[in-house]
Fold:
Amino acid sequence: MRTEFTGIPGTPSAPDVAVVVDVMRAFTVAAWAFRRGAERIVFAGTQQEALELKARHPGWLAFQDGAPVPGFDLANSPARLRTLDVRGRTVVQKTTAGTAGALAVADAGLLLCASFAVAGATAGLLRRARPRAVTFVVTGDGGRAEEDLACAEYIAARVRADDTDPGPYLDRARRSSGAARLAEGVRRGWAGVHPEDVAMCLEADAFPFAMTAARTDGRLELRPVYAGGA
Structure:
């Protein structure tokens, strides 16, 4: 399997297989939403679009990054998600990195979204699919986020060797500027950041599902996929 690691601006619009990585925090939040029973996640390109989708569909929830915004139900914190009932719900998610990256490659033949939480399952899906080439999209810091690159390289290594140790990759992510910003946010009391967010983002292979995105009724939707296809 040939691998390419790129940022959003350098990504072809329709690669055969794309894995979009956002560790801190969009796709860790997405993984936890599915773990807690969410049915699907719909990606929005703007906050206005997210709020309009929520308004048109009573019962939908809306998540965004940054500080809390009126009308949104969660500020993209995996730890704060634990207090929100998402069972059977549709979530609209808008972030400046992860969802933007997914929307940039929405026409990929196979589109996966990943974080450390679902890295092993993502590698397993790629191993079964046996693609000739995979484009890994590093979304944070303009394509330079060390935590996203480490996760992408871990997934690629797991495809080649399923017993790959996640430790060195997690250490890189733990020392990343993304982790440092969240830690600084905790120290400064930023709204929307929880003291446990970084630790939750650094839990490798926590869930037995990958996350695949595809267009449905003109919208890009994310759903969990288990090894058996359920």
